[in-house]
Design brief:
The protein is mainly alpha-helical. 58% of the residues lie in helices and 0% in strands. The chain has helices at residues 15-41, 56-77, 82-91. Helix 1 (15-41) packs antiparallel against helix 2 (56-77).
Length: 101
């Protein structure tokens, strides 16, 4: 299938940009879902019907890996600037708001 360059009339994003954002959004949502499971049941809990007993920690690592992959895809496409991402990460100081770290 040949990619199109059609622009969304409101956002002015092309189809490829929209698709990458959709992938990022889906992967972030899946990571958030696992975070909720960890908060409710703990890192070591697993779904009782899972024959491999995959614990929530492993599921979080998997989903965060998918988020990182989506970010890398967006960086390669020029949607995101890796230098800006690193700078933003270094700027974010949450230590003052922590109670248990």
């Amino acid at each position: 299938m040949r990619p199109t360059k059609r622009l969304n009339c409101f956002s002015e994003l092309d189809d490829a940009e929209l698709e990458r954002l959709a992938i990022l959004s889906e992967e972030m949502a899946e990571a958030i879902q696992v975070v909720g499971k960890i908060i409710r049941h703990g890192y070591d809990s697993f779904h009782p019907d899972d024959p491999q007993d995959t614990d929530n920690r492993h599921l979080l690592e998997k989903e965060l890996g998918h988020v990182l992959r989506a970010i890398e895809m967006m960086k390669r496409a020029g949607d995101l600037n890796g230098t800006n991402l690193k700078s933003a990460s270094k700027e974010k100081s949450i230590r003052q708001y922590l109670h248990h770290q």
